[in-house]
Amino acid sequence: MNHRADFQAVLDEIDAKIRPMLGHGGKVASYIPALARVPAGRFGIALRTCEGVEACAGDAAEPFSIQSVSKLFTLTLAMQHLGERLWERIGREPSGNPFNSLVQLESEQGKPRNPFINAGAIAVADRLLGLGCTQADILALMSNLAGEAIAFDEEVAASEAETGYRNIALANFMKSFGKLDNDVDPVLDMYFHQCSIRMSCMQLARAAAFLCRDGAHPIAGQPAVTTERQTRRINALMLTCGTYDAAGDVAFSIGLPCKSGVGGGIVAVVPDRLTLAVWSPALDATGNSLLGMKALELFVGKTGLSVF
Q1: Residue 130 burial (CB < 10 Å; 0-12/13-18/19+)?
Q2: pTM to 2 decimals?
Q3: 245-269: per-residue pLDDT in tens?
């Protein structure tokens, strides 16, 4: 299945199947007030193949808060600059606990289990700040990958800063163990801003396309984003840790490296074939998009594409 028409037909079928389910299950993230107002009845899906063929359906052009999907890109930026040194303070194991668990962080002396739980992404933000990276550098990376201007949603960033008590606790916890180099406030400001990035499914599918191209930039003529080895490692972490404590179930039912966010977005990768982005704001009990996961399951069922 290589032709745009084939993929377009698959996405249209998925959209037709999912749309009647909208509003019948799951809950929009309510602990961030700016996210609580997002209508639950939205669904978008988009893909981009290794060759640059694109297809989309539903609300694929509507921007949303990518939240933890951003962790995939800040990890990429940190790996570009730090290589193996990044793992001195961050693990690579699935957590098996909620993404904002304090208990695990204490028992492991402030070393986050992996870069995709909140504590791990805060640690990545700290390392980026230590390298002199700014919020503008994160936006520059996203804009460069997507091929168009990407922006923060300042209302969401402010909303997170006002209500992110558990993230504030996580950062202070790590600081108390000597695991953060910078002051807590600028680290959290970096983290809250990266989570507030607004992108559409189509933009996300483009931006993540380096992950299905062995690290090659999605846009022809641009330098590689990561090495082939780093790309494999990012995909491995997405498979084992990218969907919080549902990672095992997602590997079982979908079989693709995925990274989700509480804004309802999910990026999935079929190495050497394509990247896929879905969005539906209503979440399941693990904080993953309920219908986004259903859509990915339908896609794998219809195309037979999986890493297994």
Answers
A1: middle
A2: 0.95
A3: 899 999 999 999 999 999 999 999 9
